[in-house]
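Service request form, structural biology core

Requester: graduate student, group of Dr. S.
Request type: structure prediction, single chain
Budget code: on file
Notes: please return the result as structure tokens.

Sequence provided:
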Amino acid sequence: MKMIVAALLALACAFGAYQFAVQRTFVNPYPIVCDFVAQKIYLPEEKLKDWLKVCHSRSHLVSPYSAKKMILQDMNNVFELLKVSHLEIYDANEVKNIWKGESTETGLEGDFVESEFVVFKVHQGSPSEKAGFKKGDIVESINGGQPSPWTAASDIGLYRVRRGDKTLELKMKAGTFQRDDSPTFERRGSQLVIRVPSFRSEFFDDKGLKKISTNLLGAKIAVIDLRGNAGGNFVAGLRFLSILMCEPQEIGSLVKPKALDASEALLPDDLQDEHQLAVLEKHHRVILKTYHKGECFRGALKVLVDGKSSSVAEMVTLALREFRHAVIAGAPTRGELLVGVWYPMDEVSPGVQISIPEAYYESAQGRRIEGQGVSVTKTLYYKLPQMRSGIDSWIEEILSL
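Core staff response, request fulfilled:
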């Protein structure tokens, strides 16, 4: 009995020593992140005082044994109190998805149309394509629960689907896929529909611009579909505008309130993110001006946007309205146009990165998009019979405008 007690005592002492060692070496990453955000974000100090107190108070809940996932979620909850876009901390896997377009989601996109959840798009090579989903399917339930755009994009399991007069049960399995976010083209008589899912830089090099210009040849009207476009590279957006605006135009500027001096500079025609950030780092105001790209489309323009269109896509939309008098149709954009600068946060965990908005956008006519979005000149509503048949009713309607 004495030996058992002694062994238990020794074990307790060893555990206590381990706990003490862990506590002594633990560095809480939470207050480091709080202070770093306050230092870099574009907001003035007076708007950050109360938030910083809340942020530091949350840090007291973190221990050496706190799960990384819970810490990141709590940080993002605190960031939401500032009500600004492009302020978020990401795990390593999320960073990979954002920068490479590699997704662990289902690849299923849809929304409610007249109370029915309709599949709008099935990404090629995605788990949803492998499971047998088709554009126009009606998702009745996901794992027995109500479907939504978020659960359809992320949840694996059993999907109850209605296709025409048939009811199917499709099994969604976990998997990864590479999104194809390159521009696509559809000729409809004298009109050309250009679908631009993203302004990632690799799609807007000289070869990419040449492809767009070539497809525009012979078209009298161009429909620019920016639905779901979450933005990307500013120079990519300017390059795209350059083949639609013909002459170089100053469309707006990026203003960095916490810049060290009041200097300004022109954003060069350089797709490298680090080079763009180097210009922003040095100057209070960075002027955004389109470039001379030779070939240019001079026909009429229509732009299709929705509540998921944001960032650079909103900049492009507003510029086409202000300078090309484009018809803007669909639904108001998201209203998220700040310059998010990315930083590694190895203090939290290797591979973790944070995006902090350091500058805001202002158009040539003095309009800001952050928190307001871009309004539409024509509101569109999806029509269920067409969508169930796999026909995009918004495209059909904007072509007739």
